[in-house]
Structure formats: C-alpha cells, structure tokens
Amino acid sequence: MTTFQYDPAPESRAVIDIASSYGLFIGGDFVSTIDGAVFKTINPANEEVLSEITAAGAADVDAAVRAARKALRSWSRLSGAERAKYLFRIARIIQERARELAVLETVDNGKPIKESRDVDIPTAAAHFFYHAGWADKLDYAGFGPDPRPIGVVGQIIPWNFPLLMLAWKIAPALATGNTVVLKPAETTPLTALAFADICRQAELPAGVVNIVTGAGATGAALVAHPGVDKIAFTGSTEVGKLIARSIAGSKKRLTLELGGKAANIVFDDAPIDQAVEGIVNGIFFNQGHVCCAGSRLLLQESVADDVLKKLKRRLTTLRVGDPLDKNTDVGAINSAEQLARITALAEAGDAEGAQRWTAPCVLPDHGFWFAPTLFTDVSQAHRIAREEIFGPVLSVLTFRTPAEAIAKANNTPYGLSAGIWTEKGSRILDVASKLRAGVVWANTFNRFDPASPFGGYKESGFGREGGRQGLEAYLNV
Amino acid sequence: MTSPSALELDISTATRSEASLRRFLAGLPGVDQVGAEQRAASLATRSIKTSSKRTAIDLAISMIDLTTLEGADTFGKVRSLCAKAKQPDPLDETVPHVAAVCVYNDLVGPAKEFLGTAPVKVAAVATAFPSGRASLAVKLTDTADAVLAGADEIDMVIDRGAFLSGRYLEVSEEIAAVKAQCGSAHLKVILETGELVTYDNVRRASWLAMLSGADFIKTSTGKVTPAATLPVTLIMLEAVRDFREVTGRQIGMKPAGGIRTSKDAIKYLVMVNEIAGPDWLSPDWFRFGASSLLNDLLLQRQRMTTGHYSGPDYVTLD
Amino acid sequence: MSDRIDVRKTYKLFIGGAFPRSESGRSYEVTDAKGRFLANAALASRKDARDAVLAARSAASKWAAATAYNRGQVLYRIAEMLEGRRDQFITEVARAEGCTSRQAAAAVDAAIDRWVWYAGWTDKFSAVVGGTNPVAGPYFNFSLPEATGVVAAAAPEESALLGLVSVVAPIIATGNTVVVVASPNRPLPAITLAEVVATSDLPDGVINILTGKQSEILPWLASHSDVNAIDLTGVTDHALATELERAAADSVKRVYRSEPRADWTATPGLDRMRAFVETKTVWHPVGM
After folding, report:
1. Distance from the CA of B83 to the CA of which of A403, B166, B282, C250 falls in 20 to 30 A?
2. CB pair distance less than 8 Å for C284 and A425
3. Average pLDDT, chain A
C-alpha cells in the first residue's frame, strides 16, 4: 500500500525582522518606559525567546492617555473623508505586508501559518477597509444626523487573534473619530508593535493610536485612568467582571466580549460530512483558542454513533506540529499557563466519568502542545460541559428533540455563539430565534466578516463589534 | 455477532424496485454546497514539496488513462498514443508507464496491437459515448464490440436524461446489463457530473452506480464543461469510502477532463489521501482521465531532476 | 531652438474593456473652451451602442455576483489609479472646461474623493436600505437591494470628470454595469478615465463609454429591450429627454431624472444608488 507523506513545507522566517527589544508606542514614536519593567515574549512552539517587551507602568499609561487626548481635538475635527483615507492606507499596508505579519503572528502566537495567512491577516485588512468606508457616512448609520465620537478609548485585547482583535478595536474607534490607547496581550505583543510601524508608514497623526504593552497591571491602570472615556475589553469573563466593577459609578462607557461555551447542534437531517467539517472547524480551528468555539457538541441521539465515527476518522487526518509548516492544521497552545488549564480541565473530565478519546499524533518535545481530544458521555452537570476550556477539547452530549437541544444549548451562563446543522430551513430559523446567543451559525461555523456584528448575550459580554451595529460602541449616542 | 445496520439492510434491498431505490437515494445525507467547496479548497492549500512532490508526480503518471477521443482519430494517432503510454519520456527510462490508454471502441484492436505485451491497459468508451442517447440494444452492442476487440476496461456513460427525470431503476438496470456484457473487463461508470449539476445528484448517482455493479465511478466524459472539479471529486471519494465501509467492497474513482497541470493532479492526490485514504493511492483504485496532463507532469519531473525549469521542446508532442 | 513635437493620443470608444473605433468610422472635432482644436473623438453609432449593451450584459451577472467587499476593493483601486494620474487629469479637465488649473485640481480631487466615497458604500448599502421586516406571522422576512442590471446613462455636459464620476460610480457600486454617453462637447476626460478603468481590476464590460451625439445614440439605448434603466442626468434638451422617457416606457425601464446642475461638489445622498436597485423580499416559515 502506498502512503503519501508530506515533506516539511516551512514558511520562511526571513521575511520578519524582530527587534531585540521594544519600547512603548506613544505620541507617534517608540519611547522608553518611565516607570515600567521588561518581560520576554516567546515562541510557544519551541519556547525560543523572541524579544524583550516593555511592561508599561502607571506613568507610561498616563503619558499614552495624554497623547491620545492631545490628538483627539484635531482627529475628531478632521472630515470623515480624510479620516477614511488614513484607514484606507492602513488597510492597504496590512495587505502589502501580509506575509510578514502572518509569519510574525504565527511565531508569537503559535497558530498555524495557514490560519494567520488565510484568516487573521486578510480579515484584519478587511476590517480596516470596511470601517474606513463608514468614517464619512456616519449619518447613515442609524444613530442620528451627526453622531460624535466618545473621546479617548482604552482597549484591551486577548492573545488568541492578536492582530485581528486589534483591527476589531482600532478600526471602528478611529473611523468614528476617537483616539486610542491599546494594550495587547502579554504573550502576543509583536503584531501590535508592527502595527505601530504601520501607523508610522501611513503617516497617521501622532497620538491617534498608542500601544502600551504589558500584563494585568498595565490593563488595570488603563481601565482606572480618569482620562479614558470608554473601555473596550475582550478577554476572560472573570476579568470582564472586574472591569465592570471598577468603572461602576464613573462616566466611562464599556463594552465587553468575554468567554463562551457554545453549543454546536447537529440534527439527524444535517449534511453530515459538512457537519463533521463544521465541528472540526468549530473546536480545533486556532487550537480551540476561540471565545465562540463550538466546544459543546450536541448530537441528535439517532445519528450520534455515525457522526462520532466520522468525526474520529476525520480527526486522524489533522496535522499537529510546527506552526510555520504550511501543512499544519493545529498549532501550539499559546502559553504554559494555558496548557496547564487545559490539562487540568481534561483531567476533570476523566474524573467526572466522561470518555476521553485523543487523535493519534506525535507531539513535538519542546513548546506547549495538546492533542485534539474529545469527550463522549458528557452531561450538562460536568465541569467540561460548563467551564470554558479554551483549548482543543470537545465535549459531546446528546439530545432527542429540537426543544431539548435548545434547552441544553441555552442552559449556560454564557451566550456568545451557537451552531445549527440541519437541511431544514424552517428549523434553522426557529432554533436560531430561540437560542440565547449573539451569533448563530447555520450549516457553517466560525465565519467572521467586518460587516457582520459579533458579540454575546449574558456572561459572554455586551456590545457588538462589526457591522452598522458595531459603530454604536464608539459614538456618543 | 452484530445485526446489520439500517444502511446495510437498505443496501441489500435498494435495487429491488423503483420505490426502494428512490427511498434509498433520497435518504442519503444532503451535501451543503458551500461547506463541500470550502473543504475542497482547504485541501487544495496543502503544500507538497521535494521528495513527496516527486513521489506524487510519479504516482500521478502511473494513474493516467492517456486519452484520445476525437472523431479524427486514426491508426497513426493511436500508435503514437500507445508509444507514449509505454514510454512517456524517451530519454528517461525511470519514468513509469501510464495505467491505460482510452480510445473509442473501434480503435481497441489497433491499440492492443501497438501496446503488445506492455503492462498498459486498454480502456474503451462505450454505450453511445458521450451522450448516452441510444437504445439499450445499441449500447450493449457497443459494449460487446469493445470487449470482443480485447478491451480490459469499459468506460460507460449513464443515461442522464433518465436520472434527471427520476427513472433511477432504469439507470441502475442499464448499468447492470452493461456490466454483464463486460465479462472480465472492468466497468467504469461515467456520471457526467457537469450535467447532474448539484452535489446531491452527484452523491445519489455515485451510490446508484456502485449499487448497480460499477468497478469505478468516473466524473465526466470530458466533452462537457464543467468536467472534473475538486468538490465533485470530493463527493465521489466520500461515496467510495462510505460504500466500502458499509459493504466491504472497494470501488475505484476517476476524475476526467480539465486536469491539466501537475499542481492540479497533486491536489487530487491529496484529496484521495485525506478523504478516501491511502488504500486508494494506486492505479488499481484511482485514475486520471487526461491527455495534456502527462506532459506537464514530465516537465515538473524534469525540473526536479535537473534543478531548472524545462520547456515544451523537452517533452514529446505525442 | 526647436520644440519637441508631442505624440498625440487617439481618442476611441471604450467597449468590453477594449478601445475600438466607431464601427461607422466617423469622428468629430473636439475643441477647448476657446474653440481651439483638441482632438478628433470617435462619433459612436447605434451599432456601437448595441455592442456596448452586449458587453455590459455579459459582464452583468458576474459583477452583481461578486461580493460587496470585492466590488469595494476594485472601486478603491480605481481611485488609486486616478490619484496616480492626477496631474494628467488636471490638464485634461482644464483644457476641456476652460477653467484654471486650480479649479481643475479641485474638480479632479473631488472626483477621486467621490470615487472613494462610493467604494466605501458597496458593503454597507444593503445594511442601510435592506433589513428584516416584522411581518405578522411565523415567517422570517427580509428585503435586499439587488442590481437592476444594465444601465444606460448620459453624463453631464459641463462637468467632464467630476460629473461623469458622480453618475457612473453609484451605478456600478451596487453591482450594475453601465453604458455611458460622455459629455458631447467635453468627452476627452471620459476616455482618459476609460484608460484608468482598463488598467484596473474592473472586469471588462462593467463600464462602457461612448462618445458622440446624445440625440443619435440615446434613443437606441432608451428603446433597447435589454437595458434595464436609464439615467437622463446629462440630457439638458427637454424635448429629447421627453422622447427618451417615452421610448423607455415601452420596456418599463426605470428612469432617473435629474435637475441639471453646475456644482457637483456636494456630498451626494443615496438616491443615485437607490435608483438602480430592485428590492427583493423573501419569506420563509419559522418552525420545527
């Protein structure tokens, strides 16, 4: 029997140029820290140190907010058409530097180059293009004749889609006339720092975008700063609650995009082969580091065995390994901490009686890795059905009727997304109308577009990003 | 001993009547077009380099049904085709021979003569190829002629008119009759997916053909556009995979028409590998219906051997 | 001391992505505002108009089926190309309209910005004019704007570039294709615009430009059964406009009338996009 082995097909690292250290991007320049510290960022695929990053202190954050405030006056008075042109420039430069940014993202985050190249970077560019077009059309957005910006916005983004999350935050903020202080996640600062260079190339006026790297303390300083008019946070539900508490009583506006435990519902009349792809995409895309991941598979009992058989067979063709290899499907876990969390929750799954099945694959011996795993015989009362694992672990439950599926899907404090697999149109519409989730995917999963609003119900947060609706978060309306 | 699954039971009775066949085919899961096309596109991004590329090129060459199906075909044309089939590159004897030549049935005799004892099979198109619009009697005579002339393989076309108007049993019985006429020759059943249009139809026609005695299911005649495409091939590879799982019988698959470059061929091989599985990675179970593809494979092979890009003067015209 | 003799451009029609001469072989003299000879432009015939409609129709379904994002990208790239040729256009517009360089520059900049404005609309328009309709029953009901198809348009007589762009861009932004009759007296910037379009990513046939007499070509376009809509903006002759509307009535074309205007600089509203879309409303039951 012939076998068809794929030779290594590594994307070249020659296209990136990482400095040995980075300062903070404040007022249009990279500056040294006043009262901060330094930390290292590593490549999670092999634990190689990539660069030394500054952790901004309170005085640094203050300088950044002041720079944003200073830039606000002229930025918000620019005509929308002129603001649009800066955003179009940024979008174009992202496209021009696409390969460099994709490799940089993969090396800092651990995600497969196939994903950074084909999803993260092009979608980030698209967000800038889309929002550039809104800058001079805000009176058509449904918020009244001349909607005004809020002012200086503080934005804190997670490590799972670093540049894309930056685009989701900065593009609408700038289009609507706000200025920004953004803190990227501590494990993935590099593409944000490259973005600072893109702002320079676009000749964006100084202070409109400020990037302050750092960890929790930097974020807290930003949230607490009295000169910030609005906070936008994407990250864990736990930290989201902290932020909501800390701004209580102030005039600060807030939007939150938090965790999820999405139900992916497969009915007996689903297009089975595409549903299997949708399940795989839903939980193993980006190593499951996706807030809207389809982490709870709800299978109609009558097709459960058949779907599981096909799913397991499909998982054996997933390629786990070097994120820079163009044939890799599943990359590295972003950090040692995250790997520990995933491992602990998977062990909880074993302990509570679920059946673990792991895709056969050879994991590299350096770096942070977790093989794609699924648990069957899971009940709602299990931790692995309840808590967000944020890793390549799928919990499989069954249901008998559509009503039961809906009830189980909604039976969670989260409400970010959900999936419905059925060929019956009326059922799609009925189930979608009853699911308490901000994004419902029918016969597809994990599709993102700047024109499509994204955000959650309940403890998955509030506010929407993208689309006409997403502009509201950045306007004084 | 486990009792047979619902699908297994259905299969044993499916071709008993029009009603049971229709029920069986309608009961197959639907295909979501967007999802299927996305999966095909995603597999097409696999990067096959260096030695795995070299392996893939040689495998692809060995899987070609080198084809000439022109009204203007002559003994001379078929003679050249057979020479190329046996020895694709006169200056490099490490190049494998192709799997078969594919000709109209009145040229099977000459083809067999020109090939001599070479291990290249002769496939004949039959059953009023490419349209399939003739009586059953004519189609069976067409088949018998090819078999008599020595064809190792018969590539038949299904009656698309009957299929599209829902006369599934008729299509099935026709395939079974042609198969009976084949004797020891292998039967490839051409679905003409370009005329079936929907992926649901392709899935149903695939199962119908396999239930009726096909040894291979084939996408197209190459005379209609679109011919073979990656998504259609994906659906058909899923069908042969699922059929073997339920019945234990392995059936081959052949995309034909529109596959011109090595890059295309490699995409198809990746698809075979990841959808049906390595068991199908041989000329016994997977073929390419192509003509100009061979030269592109040879050019790529030369590039890998010499290290520089080659040109049309370095491969033979025919 | 000798002046270098310049290589003068031939101004032909722009049909299906190519630059053919008129099939009639005719041309007409184009002069500047002071009556001095500028060039001979092609004098389009009804057969050229017929060919242009064929080209527009064959491009129509694919252009309408492109994603809105893709159309926006293509339009934005055209703006980039226009910006690159800014100086050339300033010269052309100044010559055509007899205005100063400064006035021409303002018009050219406004034309480029107008193009960018419409590029940014492609993926937002349906969110603004479409939506779900809360019908009284268990039905999901939504309305979407769709391109009407092939639009014939008369470009403004006076404003040779900005007016032209203001008519053409909204038609194609929503997915239509267009056959535009350029300003009869000031057609040259339109053909230079065609050069920009020809080197952009816009598919052949989406924009087609005819130069010549409105009274000769427009009636054939107005009565053409394979033209879905007609934009009468550039027709200042009321009798002609009336005749065209009557001809259009035979195939129930959508007719867009516009007051003639000298100043095209104000930011347009949505009506030029709304004029050439059809609203499609779809119902689907909601149930188990």
Report:
1. B282
2. yes
3. 97
CATH number, residue C203:
3.40.605.10
Q: What one-character-per-residue DSSP string does chain C give?
A: --PPPP-PPPB--BBTTB-PPPTT--EEEEE-TTS-EEEEEE---HHHHHHHHHHHHHHHHHHHHS-HHHHHHHHHHHHHHHHHTHHHHHHHHHHHHT--HHHHHHHHHHHHHHHHHHHTTTTTHHHHH-EE---SSSEEEEEEEEE-SEEEEE--SS-TTHHHHHHHHHHHHTT-EEEEEPPSSS-HHHHHHHHHHHTSSPPTTSEEEE-S-HHHHHHHHHH-TT--EEE-TT---HHHHHHHHHHHHTTT-EEE-----S---SPP-SHHHHTTEEEEEEEEE---
- The answer as to whether C4 is a domain residue is no
User: Where are chain B's structural domains?
Assistant: 6-306
Counting Cα atoms < 13 Å in the Cβ hemisphere of B159 gives 22
The answer to whether the CB of A195 falls within 8 A of the CB of A163 is yes
Mean pLDDT of all residues in A3-15: 94
pLDDT at C111: 98
pLDDT of amino acid B2: 47
Do chains B and C meet with 3 or more Cβ pairs nearer than 8 Å? Answer: no
Once rounded to an integer, what is the mean pLDDT over residues B96-124?
A: 97
Q: How many domains does chain C have?
A: 1
Please tell me which chains touch B, using 3 or more CB pairs under 8 Å as the contact test: A
Query: Whole-number mean pLDDT of chain B?
Result: 95
**Which residues in chain A have their CB less than 8 angstroms from residue C113's CB?**
81
How many residues are recorded in chain C? 288
Report residues of chain C scoring pLDDT below 50: none
Catalytic residues of B: 155, 218, 254
Residue C141 lies inside a defined structural domain of this protein: yes
- Alpha-carbon gap, residue B193 to B239, rounded angstroms: 14
**pLDDT value at position C258?**
86
Which pLDDT belongs to residue A426? 97
CA distance C219 to C45: 11
Q: Tell the CATH topology of B6-306.
A: TIM Barrel (3.20.20)
Predicted local confidence at residue B11, as pLDDT: 82
Asked if B119 and B157 touch (Cβ cutoff 8 Å), the reply is: no
| Each residue's pLDDT tens digit, B235-294 | 999 999 999 999 999 999 999 999 999 999 999 999 999 999 999 999 999 999 999 999
Residue C70 to chain A, least CA–CA distance (Å): 10
In a domain, C21, yes or no: no
Q: What integer is the mean pLDDT of A369-377?
A: 97
The range of the structural domain enclosing residue C111 comes to: 27-285
DSSP-H helix ranges across chain B = 6-13, 18-27, 33-43, 50-62, 75-86, 108-115, 136-148, 160-164, 168-182, 193-196, 199-211, 230-247, 262-271, 293-306
Is the CB of A451 less than 8 angstroms away from the CB of C121? no
Residue C92 falls inside a structural domain: yes
Taking the alpha carbons at both ends of chain A, their separation in whole angstroms is 67
Q: How far apart are CA A451 and CA C165, in angstroms?
A: 26
* Cβ contacts of A227 within 8 Å, gap of 6 or more: A62, A65, A66, A69, A152
Nearest Cα neighbor of A396 from A380, A372, A407, A412 is A380
Q: Which two tokens stand for residue A171?
A: 């593009």
- CA torsion sign for C203, C205, C207, C209 is positive
Is the ipTM, as predicted for this complex, more than 0.90? yes
Q: If we measure between CA atoms, which residue out of A441, A186, A463 comes closest to residue A294?
A: A441
Helix (H, G, I), strand (E, B) or coil at B122: strand
Is 70 exceeded by the pLDDT of residue A42? yes
Shortest CA gap B211–chain A (Å)? 21
Q: Which of B31, B45, B51 sits opposite A271 (nearest CB)?
A: B31
Q: Name all domains of chain A by residue range, CATH numbers in brackets.
A: 13-258+457-474 (3.40.605.10), 263-442 (3.40.309.10)
